[in-house]
Write a structure and sequence with these properties.
CATH superfamily of the largest domain: Winged helix-like DNA-binding domain superfamily/Winged helix DNA-binding domain
Distance between the termini: 45 Å
Number of domains: 2
Number of strands: 6
Order of helices and strands: EEEEHHEHHEH
Number of helices: 5
CATH architecture of the largest domain: Orthogonal Bundle
Helix content: 25-40%
Strand content: 15-25%
């Protein structure tokens, strides 16, 4: 069993819990985020852990508009399919969006938009693996475990071309 350290951080969009194993970040969750039951009692609070501090610095730089791509070791827990979807999400450039169907294709599962959407909803690395950049058919803002208001705020922060997003 891996040792997990965590810290809390107050983002411009609300409190977050950030957790890491010795191999990388396992999660960055908004307070009240769907599919996150909270920290495990076996986890250790360690606000000084270097990876957690680095994640907080990079997240702040992202919100300040000084960072477009995170450079952090990642160690999310998920199925092979979920991890393939999360890798495909991580490849979506800053300021752009793709649909769930495009995401499924990029993850090697063409025709599996719903499954890709379910895997997206379970992404444990909010913002860092930018699932807010995934939209529904015809650009509809659908699904975001951290809440649609946060998804809209993140897309606005990145000044995503509005032509790709339905109002």
């Amino acid at each position: 069993m891996k040792t997990i350290s965590y810290a809390t951080w107050t983002s411009p969009l609300g409190p977050m819990l950030i957790a890491a194993s010795g191999d990388g970040l396992i999660g960055a969750w908004f307070d009240g985020q769907r599919h996150f039951a909270g920290s495990d009692p076996a986890w250790t609070h360690d606000a000084e852990q270097s990876l957690l501090r680095d994640a907080q610095r990079q997240l702040q730089a992202y919100f300040d508009g000084r960072l477009q791509r995170f450079e952090l070791a990642l160690d999310p827990v998920g199925t092979l399919f979920q991890r393939a979807v999360w890798r495909a999400i991580a490849a979506v450039p800053y300021g752009e969006v793709i649909t769930y169907a495009e995401l499924a294709r990029a993850a090697g599962a063409e025709g599996s938009a719903r499954a890709a959407g379910a895997a997206t909803g379970r992404n444990p690395l909010s913002i860092i693996v930018p699932c807010h950049r995934i939209v529904g058919a015809r650009g509809a803002l659908t699904g975001y475990a951290g809440g649609l208001a946060r998804k809209r705020a993140l897309l606005d922060l990145e000044q995503v071309r509005q032509a790709r997003i339905a109002a």
